[in-house]
């Protein structure tokens, strides 16, 4: 892959995961202030694509365990990439956590990350989700399925093509891939693995498929009954909604679906490298992986049991190669927008 400036992500039409609005919840201390502090009081700066509850729980547990203070900025992967680009002449972040391994691989290819191959528990983490040279680790993943309203659905869909049938007319949606990195991952994986994928999407359009905001907005439309099913539904969100008593269930088509890894890496210009390594170690530890499982995500360590959800080996998967995916994802996103815009 040819090196490109990170500006491609922020400006070339929302590549990968990309809601590029807004930045920042807290003000990060200046370099001068940080360097003037005693070493033990320096703050580790983490940019995290969430989920919000999980990110907060990891921050609290890590701070309690290590005594290292964490300054956390939470946003979508697109917001984080945009912020990194804006700060490229004065880097702030030490650790980045993205909801798309393709985006993380793009950071590696543009020389934005440093290797941490000796990370504790690295060998326990799914190698298919991680970089072989230790530039990033897929510490968790979500699977993308069909989330449907159990009150409005007489027969659950079994295949992606089922949603082109008359009973689903004007009752289906998909998260907007310009706002959802997982939706871009789904489109990339589905079109790479299924030769009839684009023809199926044309049929979805004819059947009234609505492009419906980000992941939460798409799922909320199903929960309220405005829509009966969402394509590329993020499973951990559906499982959590179900646990909260909402009338929602998720299925994975028998022909296979996309599992979308989430990755952590240390930025090349990190100022607090030792603390950054400790943070990565914690995410990969059994304690960190149990927090991942408690958020209804798939842990990167397969030995950690999942919570009230399908395990990885129970999900039919499409064969997706994420290495070098980001350039192809832009092509897929452009074609999708040409059909649905």
Structural description of this entry:
This protein is of the alpha/beta class. The two termini are 29 Å apart. It folds into two domains: 43-141 and 260-303, Periplasmic binding protein-like II (D-Maltodextrin-Binding Protein, domain 2, 3-Layer(aba) Sandwich), CATH 3.40.190; 142-258 and 330-340, 3-Layer(aba) Sandwich (D-Maltodextrin-Binding Protein, domain 2), CATH 3.40.190.10. It has helices at 7-11, 31-36, 52-66, 77-86, 101-109, 181-193, 197-206, 215-223, 235-243, 273-284, 286-294, 325-340, and strands spanning 43-48, 69-74, 95-98, 113-114, 137-149, 172-174, 210-211, 229-234, 248-251, 259-267, 298-299. It is built from twelve helices and eleven strands. α3 packs antiparallel against α11 and α6 (181-193) crosses α12 (325-340).
How is this structure best summarized?
With about 350 residues, the protein is α/β, with parallel strands linked by helices. It has helices spanning about 5-10, 30-35, 50-65, 75-85, 100-110, 180-195, 195-205, 215-225, 235-245, 275-285, 285-295, 325-340; strands spanning about 45-50, 70-75, 95-100, 115, 135-150, 170-175, 210, 230-235, 250, 260-265, 300. GO terms for molecular function: metal ion binding; thiamine binding; thiamine pyrophosphate binding.
């Amino acid at each position: 892959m040819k090196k490109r400036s990170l500006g491609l992500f922020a400006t070339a039409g929302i590549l990968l995961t990309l809601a590029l609005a807004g930045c920042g919840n807290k003000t990060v201390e200046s370099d001068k202030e940080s360097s003037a502090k005693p070493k033990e009081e320096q703050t580790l700066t983490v940019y995290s694509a969430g989920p919000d509850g999980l990110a907060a729980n990891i921050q609290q547990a890590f701070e309690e365990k290590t005594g290292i203070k964490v300054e956390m900025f939470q946003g979508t992967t697109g917001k984080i990439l945009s912020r990194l680009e804006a700060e490229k002449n004065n880097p702030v972040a030490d650790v980045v956590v993205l909801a798309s391994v393709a985006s993380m691989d793009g950071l590696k290819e543009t020389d934005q990350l440093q290797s941490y191959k000796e990370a504790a528990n690295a060998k326990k983490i799914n190698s298919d989700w991680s970089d072989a040279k230790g530039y990033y680790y897929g510490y968790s993943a979500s699977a993308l399925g069909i989330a449907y309203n159990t009150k409005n659905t007489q027969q659950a869909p079994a295949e992606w093509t089922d949603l082109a049938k008359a009973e689903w007319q004007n009752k289906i949606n998909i998260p907007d891939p310009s706002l959802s990195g997982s939706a871009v991952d789904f489109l990339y994986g589905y079109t790479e693995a299924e030769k009839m994928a684009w023809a199926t999407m044309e049929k979805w359009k004819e059947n009234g498929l609505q492009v419906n905001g980000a992941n939460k907005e798409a799922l909320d439309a199903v929960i309220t009954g405005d829509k009966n099913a969402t394509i590329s539904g993020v499973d951990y969100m559906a499982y959590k909604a179900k646990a909260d008593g909402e009338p929602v269930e998720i299925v994975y088509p028998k022909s296979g679906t996309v599992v979308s890894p989430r990755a952590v890496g240390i930025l090349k210009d990190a100022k607090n490298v030792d603390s950054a390594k400790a943070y990565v170690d914690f995410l990969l530890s059994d304690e960190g992986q149990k927090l991942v499982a408690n958020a209804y995500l798939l842990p990167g360590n397969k030995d950690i049991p999942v919570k009230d959800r399908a395990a990885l080996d129970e999900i039919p998967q499409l064969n997706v190669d994420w290495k070098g995916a980001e350039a192809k994802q832009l092509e897929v996103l452009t074609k999708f927008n040409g059909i649905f815009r």
